[in-house]
Amino acid sequence: MLEIKNLHAKVGDKEILKGLNLTIQTGEVHAIMGPNGCGKSTLSSVIVGHPSYTVTEGEILFKGKNLLKMAPDERANSGIFLAFQYPIELPGVGMAQFLKTALNTKRKFLGQDPMDAVQFMKYMNLRAKALDISPEMLKRSVNVGFSGGEKKRLETFQMAMLEPDLCILDEMDSGLDVDALKVVGQAVSVMREKHRSFMIITHHDDLLQYVKPDKVSVMRDGQVLTTGSADLVKEIEAKGYDKF
Amino acid sequence: MKNQSDILKVVNSPYKEGFETDVESEYAPKGLNENVVRFISQKKGEPDWLLEFRLKAYQKFLTMKEPHWLKGDYPAIDYQDIYYYSTPHKKAPKSLEEVDPEILKTYEKLGIPLKEQKQLAGVAVDAIFDSTSITTTYSTELKKRGILFCSFGEAVKQYPALVKEYLGSVVPYTDNFFACLNSAVFSDGSFVYIPKGVQCPMELSSYFRINAKQAGQFERTLIIADEESSVSYLEGCTAPQRDENQLHAAVVEIVVRDRANVKYSTVQNWYPGDKYGKGGIYNFVTKRGLVLNNAKLSWTQVETGSAITWKYPSCILKGDNAVGEFYSVALTNNHQQSDTGTKMIHLGKNTTSTIISKGISAGLSSNTYRGIVKMAPNADNAKNVSKCDSLLIGDTCGAHTIPVMVSSNETAAIEHEATTSKISEEQLFYAMQRGLSSEEAVGLIVNGFCREVMQRLPLEFAIEAQKLIGIQLEGSVG
C-alpha cells in the first residue's frame, strides 16, 4: 500500500525527516509511535502533500504510484485520508454539502457517476447512525463551534464517508476523553478491512487499547528506528522511548 | 498549491458574456449637446413635456461637476467621446418575428428566454439591447390583471399620465451628476405599474445588454406599486469585452405606496475589464425607493462585474411602519473597484431597516461598503440593524467599511456590526485533503460566506449568481 524510501523533508530551512524508511502493507494497521518532536506529524503532512513541507530526497510510492508528483487533491482522490490533529474550521460551509462535493469529486475521479441528493442523504444518514453522529451536527458548518472531541469524531465520520484505502490518524487521542476514544476506536474497528490500511500516529498507548495494531514502528529524530509487533507498545509503556 | 500565490490564481477567468453581436446600429452623433438631447427625444417620438424635462436636466448638467469621492481612481471621462444613443434597428419591432435574428441569438447565448413558449414558467422579461427595448414578454397576460409592464419608451406613449406623475419624483434630475446626465439622455428602460390590491403572479425581469462600441447605456426604470400590491422584480446585465471603458449611468425609481411590497433583485455582471485593468464598464447608478405607510422595499444585489461600481440602492422610509432592506454581495477581482452600499433614511415612526453586506475581494481589487443610516427627528422608535462582512482572498486586495450613522431622535436605535476574515491556506489545504480542487474549495467557502444574501434571490437567479461567483473566482487560487 505505502512504501517510503530514504525520505528527507524540511520545513523552512529545518530538516525534520532524515532518511525515513517505512512500509505499510495492504490491510495492515500500523502504529507510528515516538516522543514529541520526532517528526511523526511531519510524516503525515508530507504524505498528504502539505505545502509547508519540502521533500529534498527520497520517494513515496502509494499503490505503486509516485505520490510526490501528485497534487494534494489527487492524493486524496486516489484514496489517502488524513484525520487532522487540529481540524480546520470552514465557516458557512455545511458538513453535508462539503462531503457531497468531496464524495462526488472522488467518484468523478474514479470514473463513477455522481450521487444525487437523495442517494447521498440516505448514504450519509446510514453512516452517521453507525457512528452516533446526530443529524444536528451535520447541519452545522464544518468544524465550527464543536468541542475538540466532537471535531475528532467528525473526522472519523468523514473518513467513513469517503472510504479511503489508507487512513492516517494524526494524534487522534490527544485531548480525548475515554468515551470519545472508544468511539474513534470503534470507527477504526468497523472500517478495518482486508483492502484498507491504517497509519495511526500516537504519542502514547491510549488509542491502541481500543485498536490493536498489526505492526508498530518507533520514530526518533526523523527516522524509523525499529518496526515490530504490537508487543512493542507494552515495551514502550514500560521503559519509555529512551531505550530506543 | 504554493502559499499565497496559489490563492491568487483562482480568481482569473475569461468573461463568458464578452462576445459581440454583429447588427446594424443607428447612432446619435457622437458627444453631448442640446441637439443630441433633442435628437434622442425626437427619435423616440416623445411629447413636449418630456423633451422639456430632458432639456432642463441638460442645462443643470452643464453646471454640475463629476464627483470623485468614491474610494478608487479612474482617468477623467471624456463626455464628448461617447455615443449617447445607439439602436440596433431603424424601426421598433412590433413582434419577436421582426427582431433581428442576430439579437435573438445573443439572448439565446446569454440564456435569456425571449420566446414565450420557451420561458421559465413565471418570469416575464423585458430585454434592453443598447438603447432600445427589444421585446417585452407576457405583457398581454399581465395586462389582464391591470399590471403594466413594458419598456419605458412604450410607457411614455401608452401611459403618459403615470410617467409624468412619477418621473423624477424619487430621483429628481437635480439629484446628482450621473442622475442628471441620465435625465437628459436616458434612452430606454423598464416601466412597471401594479394596481391597487394586485399581487403580481410572476417575477418581472429586465435584461440589459450593452453591445455597441463607445456607447453609453443610460436606462431609466420606474416601478410603481400601488396600495396593497406586491411585485418581485429582477434585473440582469452583461456587456461584450472591449478595451475601452464604457459608461453606464442608470436611474431606478420605485414608489411603494401604503401596505405595498416590492422586492428588487439585481445580478450585475457587466464586463469587468481584463486582468491588467484594461477596459470594463463604469457602473454609476442611482437607485432609490420611496416607501410609504406600512410598505416594504427590499433590495438584493449580487455585484460581480464592472471595472468600477458606484451604487447605493436606497430607501426613503417616509411612511410610518415602513420597512427597508438591503442585502448585498459584491465580489471584486483583478483591478476592479467597487464602492457600494445603501442609504436608509428613516422619516416615519416605527420604521425599520436591515442592511446585510458581504464584500469579497481578490487580486488587486478594492471593495468598499459605504452606507448612511439617518434617523430624522420624527422617526420615533425607528430601528436599524447593519452587518457588514468582508472576505479577503490573498493579500494584495483591499476591503473597507465606511458606515455613517446620524440620529436625531432619542428613541431610535442603530446597531452596526462588521467583520473581516481571510481564506487561509490551511482552510484550502483541509478541503483539498478531502479531494476538492482549490477552485471548488474557494467556491464553497465564498458561497458559504454570502449564503445569507444568496438565499434572498429567486431560485433561478440564485443558481446563476452562484455560478457567476465561481466563474469570477476561477484562477484566484491554484
Task: Describe this entry's structure for a reader.
- The complex is a heterodimer of chains A (244) and B (478).
- Chain A contains eight helices and twelve strands.
- In chain A, 36% of the residues lie in helices and 30% in strands.
- Chain A has helices spanning 40-48, 72-78, 95-109, 117-130, 135-139, 148-162, 178-191, 231-239; strands at 2-11, 14-24, 29-33, 53-62, 65-66, 80-83, 90-94, 141-142, 166-170, 197-202, 215-220, 223-228.
- In chain A, helix 7 (178-191) links the parallel strand 9 and strand 10 (197-202).
- Chain A is globular.
- Chain B is globular, with a radius of gyration of 22 Å.
- In chain B, 56% of the residues are buried.
- Chain B has one domain.
- With 478 residues, chain B is of the alpha/beta class.
- Chain A binds chain B through residues 48, 50-51, 71-73, 76-77, 81-82, 84, 87-94, 97-99, 101-102, 105-106, 109, 141, 158, 162, and chain B through 1-3, 6, 421, 424-427, 429-438, 440, 444-445, 447-449, 451.
How many beta strands in the DSSP annotation of chain A? Answer: 12
* Proportion of residues in helical segments of chain A: 25-40%
* Main sheet specs of chain A: 6 strands, mixed
Q: What's the pLDDT, averaged over the residues of chain B?
A: 84
Q: What Rg of chain A do the Cα atoms give?
A: 18 Å
Counted up, domains of chain B total 1
Q: What is the tally of beta strands of chain B?
A: 24
The averaged pLDDT of chain A comes out at 91
Question: Looking at this structure, what is the CATH superfamily of chain A?
Answer: P-loop containing nucleotide triphosphate hydrolases
Q: Please give the most extensive interface between any two protein chains, plus how many residues each contributes.
A: A-B, 30 and 26 residues
> Which range best describes the helical content of chain B: under 10%, 10-25%, 25-40%, 40-55%, 55-70% or over 70%?
10-25%
State the end-to-end distance of chain B.
Answer: 6 Å
CATH architecture of chain A: 3-Layer(aba) Sandwich
**Poorly predicted ranges of chain B:** 1-12, 116-121
> Helical element count of chain A?
8
